[in-house]
Amino acid sequence: MSQQDLDQRLKDIINHPSYKLAYLDQDFIQSAELRPLRLEVELMKPEIMLDEAGIRSTVVVFGGTQVAPKEEAEKMVEDAKAAVAKDPDDPKAQRMLVRAERIYNKSRYYEECRQFAHIVTTYNKQFRDGEFIVKTGGGPGIMEAANRGAYEAGGKSMALNIILPFEQTPNAYITPGFCFQFNYFAIRKMHFLLRAKALVCFPGGFGTLDELFTTLTLRQTGRMQSIPIILYSKEYWDTIIDFQFLADEGVINDEHLDLFQYTETPEETWKVITDFHGVKV
Hints:
Layout: H1 3-15, H2 26-29, H3 35-53, E1 58-62, H4 70-86, H5 91-105, H6 107-126, E2 133-136, H7 142-152, E3 157-162, E4 179-182, H8 185-194, E5 196-201, H9 206-220, E6 229-232, H10 234-240, H11 243-248, E7 260-263, H12 266-277
Parallel strand pairs: 1-2, 1-5, 2-3, 3-4, 5-6, 6-7
Helix pairs in contact: 3-8, 4-5, 6-7, 6-12
């Protein structure tokens, strides 16, 4: 074998995937066989970083991505009305207007969530550093409102984002260094609840319902710490879910209705949390 052949053979050895350090080999790390390792690492990274940052407890805020600030909601209604005016017989335009008006009617929740996060953050800045840190899913809508309220109070907030088929960029109000990206919904859900001292659900859709019922099931079965589970706006939640019917049908116990409660204002919501934990404010 010539020296040229030997040199080429050495290059082939060094450049082959087998020669890469295992933890630097992305194809290997992303393989189906390494899924257990990826799950473990995804659990450990935020845990280690939050311990180092002294984050001991959180107030988790869930809610719809489509809940917009008033000015944005007004623009949506204006655009929808313009589309209907252009073609009054277009059913899609008519439907867009109905939905835009509903979103506008919910815009108050954006501001109220923002106020709630401001109240919580003002408290933890003054009295409980590392406690009651606002935590969201990191996206737009209610999540943005909560992170924004904490930011405007001059404090920290965190977020757990998720890789989706469509782009989900974190909102800009999250504290740098406290935004984590996840591939697995299951690990993300664990991190939502590991440090949770309260869960507040503002109006939302499938994702909010998923997170709410995961938490209710864990509380129902005694698989997580006792926390207040708060549904913001009884009118909204009673419209989309008939919890009493579940109890009447015997598929949940009557006492399971006590796992959650309703609130109507940011101040009332914070009082439920502080009363539950015996915190003086």
